[in-house]
Amino acid sequence: MNDAPTPSESPRGWRYAGVRSGVRSEGRDTALLVSDRPCAAAARVTTNLAKAPCVHRARAATPGDDLRAIVVVSGCANALAGAPGKAADDALAASVGAALGVDPRTVLTATTGIVGVPLPVSRVEAALPSAVAALASDPEAAAGAILTTDTRPKSASATVDVDGVAARLHVMGKGAGMIHPNMATMLAFVTTDLALTPAAADRVLGPAVSRSFNRISVDGDTSCNDMVMLLANGASGAPLLDVGDPRLEAVEVALTGLLIDIAKKIAADGEGASHLIAVTVTGAGSEAEAHAAARGVARSNLVKAAVFGSDPNWGRIAVAAGQHLAELGSAANPDRWRIAICGVPVFALGAPVPFSAPEVSAALKAPEVGIALDLGDGAAAATAWGCDLSYDYVRINAEYHT
Predict the structure, then answer these.
(1) Count of CB atoms situated within 10 Å of the CB of 293
(2) Does 292 reside within a domain?
(3) Domain-terminating residue out of 212, 239, 268
C-alpha cells in the first residue's frame, strides 16, 4: 500500500485534476476524476435525512455501468438550499459533461462545505477549461482540492492480482469534522482499473465501508453530504468479475485495507486533534456488540477529553461501552470485562486493577493511543478509531461557519 502513488502506479485509464475556481476563499477547490472509458459504479451514502442533491444523484446512478467522471467542489455543501441547490447540481453535471464531451448523466457530483447556500456554479464553469487541460495520471492535485478543514490530503493505493494481472486501486478522501458515518463516509473516491460488474462493485464496497468508515468518529455528527464512490473501468485488462466469483474476495480484502487506511487518516486529522485513538473490543458475543462497544468508546467526548489530558480514566471507557451495549440490548456483564490502556491493565472482572497512573499518563502522550476492552463473552472482535477532543476543536468550529 502506497500513501502517495506515482503516476505510473495510478489506475490505468484514469486522469485527475485539481484547480482553483474561487468557491473557497483560497486554494484549490475543484477536482475532476475522469475515466477514458465507461465504468461500473457503486456508492454508499449518508443516512442523514437532509441529503444534498449530489447524494440523491449518486443514489439514482448506482449501481450503474456507464459512469465516466466525478466532479468534486469544496467550499459549498449545496445542501438544504432548496430548488436553487438542485438546479445548481444539475447545472454542475451538465457543465462538466459538456467540458468532457460526455453525457451529463454519466457524471457524478460531490460538494462539501457550507450548508444552506446554493453552489455558485458559474465559478466552477469558468474554471473547467483549466481543469480539463490539467487532467493527468497523477491524482495528487485532485486529492488536495477536495479538502475543507483538513490539514493534509489523504490518499492511498494498492494492487490486486487477478489471474496474473496486477490491477490498481486508488482512493482519496476528505474529512476532519462532522464525522460519524453510518453506512456512508465523509467523502471518499475509489478509482480502479479492475473489471467489475456493477453488482460486484456494490458487493465489495458494502463490507469494506462497514469495516472502515463506519467505525470512525470525530464528533458524533453525520453530514448531509457523506458518501463513498467506487468506479471501475476495466482498463487493466483483467477478467471481468461478477458476484460469486471467488477472485472477488481478494478485491474486497485490498479495498477494505485501503479504506481502513483512509479512515484512520481522517480520524487522526480530526479538527484540533493531537492523538489517534484505536479502540479494540474482543470477546464479544457478536460482531454487532463488538462494533457498538468499540465505536461507543471512540465517540465518547469524555474519553476523548481524557486522552487529550493524558488522564488514564478507565471509568469513562467502561461507562461508554456500557451505554452503547445497553442501547443494543446486549446482556454483556461488566463482571467479565477487562480493560487496558496503552497495553496496561486497569480494570478486570468488575473491579479496578492497581496500576501506575504516571506510567499510563505518559503513554497517553503518544500520537496513537490504544484502548482494549475484552467483554469475556465470545470470539467476535472489532476496532474503531477516533481522536482526542481539544480546545482547538471548539475554536475551529466556532470560527468556521457551516
Answers:
(1) 29
(2) yes
(3) 268
